Amino acid sequence: MTELLQSTVKDRRKELILSTIHAISSDGISNVTLAKVASNSGLSPAIINFYFKTKKQLLLDTLVFLEQEWTSILQSRLEHAVSAEQRMLGYIHSCFDQRIFVMDKIAAWYAYWSANHAVKDYRDILVKSDQFDIQLIKKCVAELLDQSTSDKLDVEVLALGLQGLIDSLWRQALISSDSISRLDAIEMCERYLSQFMTFNDTSIESDLKNNEVSDLLPFWTYQDDEFFELEIERLFQPNWMLVGHVSEIPATGDYLTFQGFGERALVIKDKSGKVNAFHNICRHRGSTILTGEGRCRQSLSCPFHGWRYNFDGKLQFVPGQSGFSNIDPEKYSLKAVDLEIWYGFIFIRFVSGGPSVQELMQPIEHEIEHYRLNELQPYQEPTQYAFQNPESLPINWKIYHDIDNEGYHVPIGHPTLQQLYGLSYVDSYVKDIPVSKGRFNERIGNLWSVKHYRKLMPKFQHLPDDRQDLWLYIGLFPNLVLALYPEMVEIYMSIPCTPTRTEVIGKCYALPDERRGIEALRYLNRRINMITAGEDYFYMNAMQEGLKSSVFPKWTLSETAETGIRAYHHAIQARLPVARLENKPRPGTIAKLNDQLAANGNFEARH
Q1: Which of 111, 433, 586, 604 has the most crowded Cβ, counting Cβ within 10 A?
Q2: How many CA atoms lie within 13 A of 17 on its CB side?
Q3: Residue 213 DSSP symbol
């Protein structure tokens, strides 16, 4: 209980600190108030007082959090670096890490730097961090120059030049969030370094010489920062993410928001009834425009400086516009995000290209055609069985899906599910889409939730007989599961935050049904599923902790009951071929090696 309480306190403190970072980004340090932080986090100012006592302490702890996050990321990248080149590249990649190179945190860093002249505690932390960085750069540059044939290069000038370039790229990102990408920034820093050093771009053959090809994901892919960044860029940003259902935004100005992978989006219904999706980024200084979900009355208004936009994204009004030159409403309109509505569900995609949701899901449309998904309405879950939205788990995102993609653990790990449908549960694939089915056991069972759920189950006129007693799960790669029950529909989706932290978003929907007992039936469904989730969370945490052990076993999968894991791993490896390497590649090489392997097609490592 003590460990659980400590974990809860830690999570709550972090939630408040992240809300503070957002408040600093939106309003500046001097304008941050406990009320604004409380509003961002959905908590009361009294809770903030409980954890931090004073605004001064909250702001100081927030800076400490930012500095410790930076230090942790940098140390992780430098841990296995054996040369000055690798340390230098590790430092550059850390500066543009997905967790660091985001608008809110960049703005917060500069806000603290601006205030450090007045607050000694800020200055001590910032100067110490800055001195460590410049000494690291100088040391690496000095070692690299020792290998150079030129004797006219100045270590301090080159080191300060790199630091200045990184600062310039950060400022450029702060001025306009879409002006430069992480990869472009890293590539520019590498071009700077190439002026006085030669990169040791080891060939594929050398990197593979002592490596094995792995049929399943090797365990380094569950822990490595570089590989995690590759997953975000290649698996998540280019793929479709579910935001919600059209029934959640029935009227003009109704909106939903989405945040993940270093991106923010908003979905809103305009006056013509059209659903639009935009980057949730003000075109002035990059502030968040909307949070959560709700309704805008007349326009989208940025809370920072009051820039306003129509519901179709067009810039409508700029306060003090006479102080700006050449404000073109078209140029400064909100940036659109790919959007598709499939059976009422709203999907967005941050990187364009690739198949539509319709094309991806076409092979299983025969499975869902009877569920009237277009007509669903949001279902308000009983409070004790509702998802914290999002719910944070201290695990790698792939562990979440490794457990979800097999039913081998159901008989032992989930007594409730076993009693509900365990005798018939089966995992399968339709084309590349995972489909799992569990048909109710013939015997009703004696566990309270299962027994009453089965006894209350009526007949649903819109479903054929073979769907009346079926729990059906359908996946959309890489992170979404659609669960179809006779009486309701559930979606759950993982949002990777770091290699060891994942948020899970869950929502429930149902068709209107006023029959007596339906509400109790849905309550029992949620009770069964939350019992199951609690059991799975225990197994996930155990696996995550086990990864640290020197004797953690290699994959040993059932050839009949765990085929879903194998198929899922192969789907990731097909998109990220570097994940087929048994041994972790050298630091700073993973993305380039992956691109080379992808370009070369199939490859053979040492056997």
Answers
A1: 111
A2: 20
A3: B
**Tokens for 536?**
């799975």
Burial of 485 (0-12, 13-18, 19+ CB in 10 A): buried
Tokens 């000494």 -> residue: 135
Residues 6+ apart with CB under 8 A from 279: 177, 178, 263, 264, 265, 334, 335, 336, 337
- In angstroms, the CA 18 to CA 219 distance is 30
φ, ψ (nearest 5 deg) of residue 7? -65, -40
pLDDT averaged per 10 residues, the chain (length 607): 48 81 85 79 73 85 91 82 81 86 88 83 89 90 76 83 91 75 83 74 58 87 93 95 96 95 94 95 89 91 91 91 83 94 97 94 95 95 60 92 93 95 92 93 93 96 96 96 97 94 94 94 95 94 90 87 92 94 84 83 56
How far is residue 185's CA from residue 181's CA, in Å, rounded to a whole number?
6
CA distances from 523 to 302, 387, 388, 446, 530 (A): 39, 13, 17, 18, 11
The backbone torsions φ and ψ at residue 254, rounded to the nearest 5 degrees and listed phi first, read -70, 140
* CA angle (168, 172, 173) in 5-degree steps: 120
Whole-prediction pTM: 0.74
